[in-house]
Amino acid sequence: MSRRRRGVLLGGLSLLLGGLAASDIGGREAALRQQVGPLAPVLVTRVALPAGARLSRGRLAVRKVPQRWAPAGSFASPEQVDGLRLAVAAPAGADLVAGMVDDGRTAAGAPVRAGERVADIVAVGSPRLIVAGVHVDVLVTRADGDGAGRTSLALEDVEVLAARSAPEARSDDGAEHVAASLRVTVRQAVYLGAAQSFAREIRLLPRAAGDDRRAGRGLSVGSELLR
User: Fold this and answer.
1) Distances (CA, A) of 83 to 59, 61, 129, 153
2) Of residues 44 and 109, which shows the higher confidence score?
3) Distance between CA atoms of 105 and 173, rounded to whole angstroms?
4) Confidence band, pLDDT 50/70/90 cuts, at residue 112
5) Of 182, 187, 180, 144, nearest in space to 163 by CA
6) For residue 104, what is the DSSP state?
7) Cα–Cα dist 122/115, whole Å
8) Which CATH architecture has domain 39-102?
9) Which residues contact 225 (CB under 8 A, 6 or more apart)?
10) CB atoms within 10 A of CB 104
11) What does DSSP assign to residue 207?
């Protein structure tokens, strides 16, 4: 075999092996993306910043994380907070979330009155209906001893301070979820914190504007309703 022909064969073999290697890497990347899920942009601090520091592009960066692991209340781009100030000190690389930013609407602290707290929960609900300013009822479903569910009206007429879609929490039945910040009492905040752990499901029901009628907190329905 001539030297030229041998060179052509070796070149062709190299191209073939290179193509196979690229195909294998591409397949592994696709499998990894499928396991991790879609990525979401999350705004982080580029350097350590003290409380009161003004936020700007040079002090911020965007990293991509699996959407299901993106923190509630996070920002996606520097434009969303440009010119605002930090309400608390933040180390370099910290995820920037709504509670860390002073938007000027409150002089200090959270936007609640004395004796109130902000409770952050992830619950079943429509992100198109559950938005800042609306009032909701909170339903909590827990499993009975026999595995059947019992749903209770836990809280009524609760104000939503902030809300966003939470596709990372979408359940097997396809129900939409929202990450919501609610204005509640201390006792209610403790209950909701516990409910996130013990409840099979938390659901938010938006109320009509101005509707302050009460159905009776503690109203509970179990599987006997279906019989």
Assistant:
1) 11, 15, 30, 42
2) 44
3) 39
4) confident
5) 180
6) S
7) 23
8) Alpha-Beta Complex (3.90)
9) none
10) 9
11) P
Domain boundaries, the chain: 39-102, 116-221
Between the two ends of the chain, the Cα-to-Cα distance in Å is 86
d(C-alpha 200, C-alpha 98), whole Å? 27
Structure tokens given for 119: 């409770």
Q: By the 8 A CB rule, do 200 and 142 touch?
A: yes
E strands, the chain, in order: 39-45, 60-66, 85-86, 101-102, 116-124, 135-143, 149-165, 177-185, 201-206, 220-221
Measured distance CA(80)–CA(73) in Å, rounded: 12
- Look at residue 29 in the predicted model and tell me its pLDDT: 63
